[in-house]
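Hello K.,

You asked for the raw outputs rather than the summary table, so here they are, unedited. I folded two proteins back to back in the same session to keep the settings identical. This is the first:
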Amino acid sequence: MAQRSITRTEAVVLRSIDYGETSQIVTLFTREKGKIGVMAKGARRPQSSFGATLQPMSYTQVVFYYKPTRTLQTLSESSHVQSFHRLRERLPTITVGLRIVELVDALLEEEDAQPAAFALVVRALHRLNYAEVRVGNLWPFVQLQLAQVLGVAPAVDRARVEAITGEEGLLSLADGGVYPADATPERPRRASRPALRAYAVCARADLDTVMRLNMAPAVRRELNTLVRDFLRYQFDEAYPDQSHSVI
């Protein structure tokens, strides 16, 4: 018989839905056990001890009763590690934050611990909470870094990037690499040189460098399209777009 154990771990709230009159079903991305679903009984009562800790994008310390045979665990405690309240004050930061947690929810398997992905999400939400400018730079960066964690790292080579001397080059949807316009990679996608260089920075540079990247609106739109198409090719229909459509 499977034994029930008490688990205490840090978590990022990915989504929550109302259940019954007073409870919520919450999807958590935990440091210890990866993505799990929990039942938060009484979470919607006015005096609930859960408070605002179960809102999407919250970074929390949770305690739940874990039983391997269950698909839904029972949440007993939740408290903020960091509330990230500032990112909820502006539409651009809300948009990026919700797209990040939606992406993680869509691409990660249940109960598959991914400590590198967890650290990436927390770092991105923390930066989003305090960033004043260029918050949109986080979105392509997180997508490409998460792809790397999940085993489909973009094959960006500096020499090939620098070999793009004309106005356009190519992105390979198959390997995520950037190539000169006369190359013949698998599943090529033609793109402007500025967008391909921005793509390479987001794929290979650290977050501080990415946040300093200053892009014209047209280049940013093209970059986001390139990243989206690469991830859609790699993850098929698992790639989500619901939050973007709603917002």
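The second followed immediately with the same parameters:
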Amino acid sequence: MAGSNHVVLMDLSQWIGVGRRLRRENAVGWVVRLSKALADLHEGQGAHGCVCPEAVVTEGPACQQQATLRAAAGLPPRRPAYRSPERGEAGPASAADDVWAAGVLLYEALTGALPFAEPGAPSPARALADHGCQDAGLQAVLDRLFE
């Protein structure tokens, strides 16, 4: 609608996945913001339990946009690729599982692909360089998250 101040909120899944990726600074920026929200939640001894692109609601793909973290109860069923091997299919939500999922979100935002050939696999993640993302620092962060 022309002249309207109406803001359309969407989630990050609108901009990442299946070959769609964010610019590096936006991918990192979103995960930093997500990590801060999760740290606050974890300090209160809680866990989100359903971290995924659909959980981050925003006005746009740039990390400077306003954003909120949806409660897990308001999300569709959890995507298997975002489950840590320790949690499996039915384990309880935990801070460690949230951190794992934030790493999967970072990988997907950077590459437009998922890090593991099989969801929740304990095998090494595919290298960022396999997707044209040459960043040794981010690769080291992801390697540590997924070990």
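Residues 51 and 101 are 6 Å apart (CA to CA).

Happy to rerun anything if the numbers look odd on your end.

Regards,
P.
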